[in-house]
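Ticket reopened. Same input as before:
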Amino acid sequence: MPDALSDLLPALVAFRRDIHAHPELGFQEHRTAALVAAALKEIGLDVHEGIGGTGVVGTLRVGSSDRTIGLRADMDALPLQEATSLPYASTRAGVFHGCGHDGHTTMLLGAARYLAGTRQFDGTVNFIFQPAEEGLGGAREMVKQGLFDRFPCQRVFALHNWPDLPAHHVATRPGPIMAAADKFEIVVKGKGGHAAMPHVTPDAILAASEMVGQLNTILARRIPPMATAVLSVTRIAGGHAHNVIPATVNLGGTVRSFDPVIQDRIEASLRQVVEGVALAHGVAADITYDRYYPATINDADAAAAALAVAAKVAPHIQIAPEPAFTSEDFAFMLQVTKGAYLWLGQGANPGEGACSSPLHHPHYDFNDAIIPTGIRLHVGLVEAHLKAS
Ligand SMILES: [Zn+2]
Ligand SMILES: [Zn+2]
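Engineering reply: fixed in the latest deploy. New output:
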């Protein structure tokens, strides 16, 4: 890569650390979005703000081809207290770039800067900076507000730093790469009464306990053994006194899956199990089941093309043997546009002692050493898809 990239790095690292120190939660990324928009304008891109809340799109056209590509980064931080003592640690209590979106934003901005200078392609690049990836569906909002109608993209790609892979290594896979995420809430309703008179009071605690046990049989007994999914009950709350049977008990949890048929089956089984147990115990149960993120499904050709690009810029590439059970709202973009989601390693290399903390861990930090690799990947994707003739 020409010197141009190394010249850009000091300012990019400073930018990354600045937004790390000033993190913003989903749909509140006003400062970050303004910095991104200003930087994109400075390098001459056509900049559009306020898409899907705080989303920003910068467009760079070179040549006369009608080919198009989108590259996406997420800008939001997590509601989590940072526990590092870094000089650029979060200045905002309880808000923290614990997933490395500060790094993603920086790498995409770096790619825009680099490509605006070198212009070795023929077509249109849309640099998509999205809000609210962490559970709030910023990508869905941008798509709803016409992202791909206003900024057509034949292919769209996104990178996520990956602590489990050595730094600079790249992995992706055809088909599912991140899980669909559902959440459920169950309110078990009895009558409430004296604990010494259980025969006149349906026991919401006992019913809820049995529901937890039965819900844990769904994956073992209701879906095919070769299918992969997770169902975790993560919350149970009810009661406040030793001598009172409570009137209500609340249960909550999550379901992760990769195949919509399996997802349907799990939801239907959950409803059946909860209603059946409730009936047996003489209680009622209100069920709220929310499918908040679909599975992230890579287009096979786009994933293969991305790995071919990665092979030129990364020391090691691999087809990931299995998807991750975490979820990603880039899924909404891949539902309407072909593309792929890639993991960029940021962990320890063989022989190194230090290792990156996992994503969403209070000691996590984005590894600035991978910024150039991320930029080369973005640039490679553009130069491959929009090949200058
Ligand atoms: Zn995250
Ligand atoms: Zn993330």
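The two ends are 20 Å apart (CA to CA). The mean pLDDT is 96. Please confirm and we'll close it.
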